[in-house]
Automatic annotation (TrEMBL):
<dbReference type="InterPro" id="IPR002502">
    <property type="entry name" value="Amidase_domain"/>
</dbReference>
<dbReference type="InterPro" id="IPR036505">
    <property type="entry name" value="Amidase/PGRP_sf"/>
</dbReference>
<keyword id="KW-0812">Transmembrane</keyword>
<dbReference type="InterPro" id="IPR006311">
    <property type="entry name" value="TAT_signal"/>
</dbReference>
<keyword id="KW-1133">Transmembrane helix</keyword>
<feature type="transmembrane region" description="Helical">
    <location>
        <begin position="16"/>
        <end position="35"/>
    </location>
</feature>
<dbReference type="InterPro" id="IPR051206">
    <property type="entry name" value="NAMLAA_amidase_2"/>
</dbReference>
<feature type="domain" description="N-acetylmuramoyl-L-alanine amidase">
    <location>
        <begin position="73"/>
        <end position="202"/>
    </location>
</feature>
<dbReference type="Pfam" id="PF01510">
    <property type="entry name" value="Amidase_2"/>
</dbReference>
<keyword id="KW-0378">Hydrolase</keyword>
<keyword id="KW-0961">Cell wall biogenesis/degradation</keyword>
<protein>
    <recommendedName>
        <fullName>N-acetylmuramoyl-L-alanine amidase</fullName>
        <ecNumber>3.5.1.28</ecNumber>
    </recommendedName>
</protein>
<keyword id="KW-0472">Membrane</keyword>
Amino acid sequence: MSETTTGGGRRVSRRTLLIGGSAAGLGAGVAAYAARDELARMWWRLPGVDKPRKAGAVDQPGAEWIPASGANWRWADRPADYVIDRVVIHVVQGSFDDAVRVFKDPGHRAAAHYVVRRDGHIAQLVRELDVAFHAGNRSYNERSIGIEHEGFVSEPSSFTDAMYRASARLTASICERYDIPRDREHIVGHVEVPGTDHTDPGRHWDWDRYIRLVRAVRVARTAK
């Protein structure tokens, strides 16, 4: 996803746009008020990025970087602009390759931060500081990290021991990075997101086992 720039190529921050919009409102008439109102509606779509970014860098050690289409997420500066206090668990209703393919497709308009394969391999497609369109709820997108899992909600065999353990390590690391409690209030299924019409991870996802595994992981705290 390309950054918003001025005509001279300089990146425009969300804060600059808001301040500029307010100033225009003070110095002009109806047209300026209309412009300010337009900025108020669109401010959350624009980048306000201060944190350094390195191409190909991952937040989770050992994850494979496979970038999602920029149409499926938006630039942010989390947790400076949005507090991260949730992890949302998804099941793709397909394979690992299916998930990667659709998250790289700009027409899909959705992506999770991570995808976990049956054998425990993890791919990161969106940086944690950015907002991935995964939950079907703007507030939850802004406040959460989304983890997609290979498999089908109707097939218990989809959820292997390797997958549970790798995903639990990932979730524990996310919780450590952002001081998220390791409990069912803060680690939720897609089905629990307000307004969603999804049912994943489904009745075969073993929440008791998963939360035990997440709590058992000991993670060295790193600055974020």
